Amino acid sequence: MGTSIYAAESERLWLQCLSEEHLEGYHAIQSNPLAMMWSQNLPEASLEETLQHLRERQPTPEQPWNQRWAILLKGSEGKDGEEGGKEGKPKMIGIIGIVREQEIGYKLHPDYWGKGYMSEALKTMLGMFWASEGEMFLPDFVRWDSVNCVPANKKYNELKAYADPENKASVNVLTKAGFRKSILLKNRHSRAYLGKGVMSDLQGFYLFRPGTENMY
Ligand SMILES: CC(C)(COP(=O)(O)OP(=O)(O)OC[C@H]1O[C@@H](n2cnc3c(N)ncnc32)[C@H](O)[C@@H]1OP(=O)(O)O)[C@@H](O)C(=O)NCCC(=O)NCCS
User: Which residues form the N-acetyltransferase domain (predicted)?
Assistant: First the structure.
């Protein structure tokens, strides 16, 4: 089998390990007020700020789970200055990854909301994540031959997620992917978009590795 620069693919998307080559696409998302409206952080003001965060969001020996994948749109390869990705590369439309140990997070550029892209990306990422156990749960869309950056996820039989209950789009994305509600944390989350002193609720979610649910 040959190798691929992508970690996984679905019908419309590629997932690629986040690296500095994604800086501009990542900044377009992290600097967008709508994309950041549920975040505890303000939109990022400069490429330098995004670069610093990008470098912090990489796996290390201490935090091998600290991984992000750029969500790239297939068929969007364009020339510089045109709509689409630069220099023939597919356009980065979102980000998905492990934001804290065993906890997933994601964000899509608002230009691409409501088209099912995050549902597709999450399904793809989960297939890749669970597949790192071995080939037992390897779905068709995961390119196991690829240069991908899945660490040893063997020890994880459960993933978690948190969403503001008012963030209906995110709640729907998680529910559609099979996540179930766990605890509702009241007044737990400070959203920069709402200003200081306003606390929002957080709904917890969990998802078991396929085939392990009956172990609990
Ligand atoms: C949350 C987010 C990733 C959703 O991405 P998306 O690609 O637009 O989501 P999808 O198109 O896959 O939609 C998933 C489901 O939610 C529904 N949905 C989408 N937007 C919705 C909205 N604003 N209100 C209610 N439902 C919505 C869709 O209809 C779909 O359900 P369906 O298939 O039954 O129709 C995107 O809105 C986003 O990046 N928001 C800002 C960052 C963020 O909130 N991150 C998550 C923090 S927990």
Answer: 12-180
